[in-house]
Hints:
Elements (H helix, E strand, L loop, with lengths): L6 E4 L2 E2 L2 E2 L1 H17 L3 E5 L15 E4 L8 H15 L3 E5 L2 H14 L3 E11 L2 E8 L4 E7 L3 E5 L16 E4 L29 E5 L9 H11 L2 E4 L1 H5 L20 E5 L5 H7 L4 E6 L6 H4 L2 E4 L2 H12 L1
Parallel strand pairs: 1-4, 1-6, 4-5, 5-11, 6-10, 7-10, 12-13, 12-14, 14-15, 15-16
Antiparallel strand pairs: 2-3, 7-8, 8-9
Bound molecules: flavin-adenine dinucleotide.
Flavin-adenine dinucleotide binds next to α5, α6, β15 and α8.
Amino acid sequence: SLSMKNILVVTEHLKGEFQEITFEMLGKGRELAADLGGQCIALVFGNMKSKADLLGAADRVVSIGGNDDYNPETCTAAVKAVVRAKTPAVVLVGNTSMGMDIAAPLGTALAIPVVAYCNDLKAQGDSLIITSQQYGGKINVETVTPPPVVISILPGSFNPEKGQIPGSPEVEDFPVEIGAGKVRFKKLIEPEAAEVDITQSEILVAIGRGIGNRDNIEIARELARALGADIACSRPLVDAGWLPKAHQVGKSGMKVKPRVYLALGISGAPEHVEGMKNAATIIAVNTDKNAPIFDVAHYGMVDDLFAVCEELINELK
Ligand code: FAD
């Protein structure tokens, strides 16, 4: 309805830090609120209201309190209570493990539509035009709907800097009493410390299934040493146990932005490309000239990766 103008952003935090998705959503939420003539409201849970000054992109902060440890059951119930009370036009959640917990039950409980995998969003007249990714990014779909709507935002879709505005938004306590549910937070299991953080690498030698077997990885390592690069890989190598998870690039791996990304024997599936398309220079070597990796590569060679590696190593030596 036209009385709905506000944007509610469900913030995320971990170990006392707001996550980047929070700022992506706040930046977009603020823009949208301005277009609709409403306010951008940040919803925080746990003890984060003490850090409300980081949420200056929001006009107001609603603090539902509770525990800092995320619990999908209580958090969803609390968000639902806030949405009932505040009747926002749009609820933005992350398309993250947390946001995906919240979006669907929220939509079904309040009988409002949910649009997931959103990577773009705008208001036009009385409607919202929402672009979302389907089939792992192969196609974009536009959904046009009047408010209210719950939208889950794919991380990386919007500029977080636009939401990182210090300020002193008004903080409203909105404690929600929720009986003990069935879900308990037990502990946070952190990924094993990795020997390398490939999100910080300047140069990555990335290998895919084209490498053939575990022993062949040595030639890529030799090339990486000669280039001062780190080793990255596609998912099948991690699934096979050939390399630790910390090396995986893609949808379910790391998002990397090196100066140079050398893709050896990687086909370029959308789930892989999602993690490396922002590299400054992408060089692909693949024996298949139709491999989709060549669509994102700045330079490509239709050749055998072993021949290219050997020649490069000799050249560099
Ligand atoms: P393949 O697709 O098998 O490609 C191997 C390539 O090597 C081929 O193009 C072939 O032409 C080439 N080749 C073979 N021999 C040589 C040679 N001697 N020299 C040069 N080239 C050669 N994948 C990821 O990478 N990261 C993710 O995070 C990720 N997450 C996923 C999440 C979901 C939900 C799903 C469904 C899938 C995900 N995947 C991910 C898997 C993804 O869909 C692909 O299956 C995977 O990326 C393919 O890996 P690849 O390119 O190494 O292997």
